[in-house]
Specification:
By secondary structure, this protein is mainly alpha-helical. The chain has helices at about 15-20, 25-50, 65-115; strands spanning about 5-10, 130.
Length: about 130
């Protein structure tokens, strides 16, 4: 069993119940969605360019310049896919953070409700001076 030790947190640093009730994580989810859409757009665009390079406008393109253009668009596609993967990873972190914050919010509100049912009269701040990590 892992034991945690209490960490003293000054009451002034604790959020009010109202602040917790109004805690919104939509910005994290919205940002994650934006990053995913951006990544998908970049992936599709650079893949299409790379795939169409051998036949621009539908006509085959051959020669040294064509080979150089194909290599370049393929290399650019790989770079963009690497950056897109980073966006997907960042979006996953943002979504996980939003979920964890929403869960913490719910646990805090449940603790406040339980304390209220037990007779605690602390409408603005948490009644405990320590948080267990």
């Amino acid at each position: 069993m892992v034991h945690t030790s209490p960490v003293t947190v000054p009451i002034a640093m604790l959020p009010t119940i109202t602040a917790i009730e109004n805690w919104d994580t939509a910005n994290l989810t919205t940002t994650a969605n934006h990053w995913i859409l951006t990544a998908i757009t970049w992936e599709r665009a650079f893949t299409e360019i790379s795939e169409r390079m051998p036949n621009p406008g539908g006509a085959p393109w051959e020669g040294i310049a064509a080979s150089a253009a194909e290599r370049r668009t393929y290399a650019d596609r790989l770079k963009v896919i690497g950056v897109a993967d980073e966006l997907h990873s960042a979006a996953a972190v943002a979504r996980k953070g939003a979920n964890e914050l929403a869960s913490a919010r719910q646990r805090a509100l449940s603790a406040v409700a339980d304390a209220g049912q037990r007779g605690s009269q602390s409408p603005m701040i948490f009644p405990c001076p320590a948080v267990f990590l």
